[in-house]
Amino acid sequence: QVQLVQSGGGLVQAGGSLRLSCAASGSFIFSISTMGWYRQAPGKQRELVADIGSNDSTKYADSVKGRFTISRDNAKSTVYLQMNNLKPEDAAVYYCYLQAARRWGQGTQVTVSS
Fold first, then answer.
1. ∠53-23-61 over CA atoms, to 5°?
2. What is the per-residue DSSP string for 21-74?
3. How many Cβ atoms from other residues are within 10 Å of residue 62's Cβ?
4. Which residue in 5, 4, 7 sits closest to 110, CA to CA?
5. SS3 of 94, please?
6. How big is the CA angle at 73 (ends 48 and 37), to the nearest 5 degrees?
7. 27-73, pLDDT tens digit by residue?
8. Which pLDDT score is estimated for 109?
9. Which of 18, 35, 90, 104 is at 20 to 30 A from 5, Cα to Cα?
10. Are 30 and 98 in contact (CB under 8 A)?
11. Is 10 helix (H, G, I), strand (E, B) or coil?
12. At 93, is the secondary structure helix, strand, or coil?
């Protein structure tokens, strides 16, 4: 059974950086699947932050372009989200998503203090 385990996140001051990781286990399809990072703030819908295809093509929400970078390491079945110049409005619970298995990570809190 596919499992996604997230790490990273936490509390950071505005302007700071964090890196999120999401490791897939039990998945032989990781390398051929699009991986995504989503976030959900209190009272808001879950939204796509960034995704990366099997060919390393990437897509970003306009609000994070130029600040966030998504990457993947297929040998480790891991996807990363490097978040720089964080803003208070980036605060949310972040989830990774393995599209081919329709599986979500457990979520990790990102808090940005102003």
1. 40
2. EEEEES-S-GGGS-EEEEEE-TTS--EEEEEE-TT--EEE-TTTTTTEEEEEEG
3. 6
4. 7
5. strand
6. 10
7. 678 888 999 999 999 999 999 999 999 999 999 999 999 999 999 99
8. 98
9. 90
10. yes
11. strand
12. strand
**Integer Cα distance of 51 and 81 in angstroms:** 10
CA angle 80, 6, 102 (to 5 degrees): 85
Given a contact cutoff of 8 angstroms between Cβ atoms, the answer to whether 99 and 89 are in contact is no
Q: What angle do CA 41, 11, 8 make, to 5 degrees?
A: 85
Tokens of 84: 């720089």
Look up residue 72 and give its two tokens. Answer: 């993947």
> CA 60, CA 87: separation in Å to the nearest integer?
16
Count of residues making up the chain: 114
Q: What residue type is 17 in one-letter code?
A: S
